[in-house]
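Example with several molecule types.
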Amino acid sequence: MNFKEQFILNFVTDNRWTNITTGLIHTIIITICAALIGLVLGMIVAAVRTTYDKNCESLKRRGGLGYIIMTFFNAVCKLYLTIFRGTPVVVQLMIMYYIIFASAKNGLGVAIIAFGINSAAYVAEIFRGGIMSIDNGQFEAGRSLGFNYIQTMMYIVIPQVIKAILPALLNEFIALLKETSVAGYVGITDLTRGGNIIRGVTFSAFMPLIAVALIYLIMVVCLTKVVGIIERRLRKSER
Amino acid sequence: MKDNALIEVKDLKKHYKNGAVKALDGITTDITKGEVVVVIGPSGSGKSTFLRSLNLLELPTSGSIMFDGEDIAAPHVNINKHRQKMGMVFQHFNLFPNMTVLKNMTIAPMKLKGLSKEDAEKKAMELLERVGLADRAEAYPSQLSGGQKQRIAIVRALCMEPDVLLFDEPTSALDPEMVGEVLDVMKKLAKAGMTMVVVTHEMGFAREVGSRVVFMADGVIVEEGTPSEMFDSPKSERLKSFLAKVL
Ligand SMILES: Nc1ncnc2c1ncn2[C@@H]1O[C@H](COP(=O)(O)OP(=O)(O)OP(=O)(O)O)[C@@H](O)[C@H]1O
Ligand SMILES: [Mg+2]
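Resulting structure tokens for the full complex:
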């Protein structure tokens, strides 16, 4: 079979290309939704961890419920980070799908939750690292002007943190895009599985798998370009 | 005297590591309105800890700090309200690098005092005029020299119209040729009646501008008095040997 016949067999016959497009759409949906969950949940976890680190002395001094509650939530966050960064995402996905949400019919939803919660653990550490990288003098300057802890974070620290971590954050989402390729383990037709389905039918591996690889590559290269542009912009505005 | 006390510090202690390190070991002193208190002492004597305890950047282990009719060292005090009246100037300036000079100066009055942008900027520009930096209003901190940064840091604190200004070694991070311009601003402030507590190694400034000099060592006040008492006729051995080293 020549190239053209291979192409027709793998993509045109029986509209097999739709496996790829459907898969691509699912991959994009999972990535975007999981990224959003990761961002929000990650920020919350980072907020708990840094608030505890920065205020535990004054909370302890005041005593009472505030300190106990913060200590508890901080411990929960630490445990969460250990577990979700310490196990493979595909195992987490399967546990979610086959155990925790065993009765759920919506595989896509479960995958979004699983990848979102996993990504949040990494986002949280990126945020925390960013907050810790800001000189404590910035924080003290804010507090000494009379801003409370939250105002100091909002007006002084976070704007600097976002500038500092934006590239790392975007790179995390690029990694997430590639990681979603294990979604097929729980029966979701993502881009990878779409290609694999074609291979299963046509018994020809080359075209569908190379096509899948190329599509990932194009997406990643484009996103990396965007990160590069943003990075350069940020550096310029740094002066 | 007692009537004008702005800050009354009583038996202030700050211990680290469960009391193994006694950074402050019982400080008692009053800071009076309009007074310029210069704190001197060897490295590690607790000068910064004392200064930073006054606005609770360090949380005291025990003791009291009366300010504005309240013991601000007690738990459950809303320290943010009090800090608005206690400006602080740091050794390393701590300007906000992502904001222009004007934004550095106006953000606190706008967010905390509800000043309009126009009013806050008008006030900031007046202060910038006074320190000769009006032309740098739109500059970013990284575009300024060290001396300019510290002058901006001082007027940033002044924008909140504090009752007292706390300085922690404001000229120690500066190149020698820039020390003068910062000390000049501080002198002007002192003349204008600003209450100031200044930790410094600039003995010339202490003698010329200080209304009282406090000598600390090992977390306690060893000796205090007017500049001439302290520099011309020191009593304690520790102060004598300290002065012999620094003068
Ligand atoms: N976070 C901390 N943990 C433990 N010990 C500390 C801490 N901060 C300060 N100390 C100790 O408290 C003592 C007083 O420190 P402080 O910074 O107030 O001294 P200083 O007089 O300002 O010195 P310098 O002139 O070097 O600035 C020192 O012995 C220091 O090691
Ligand atoms: Mg010090």
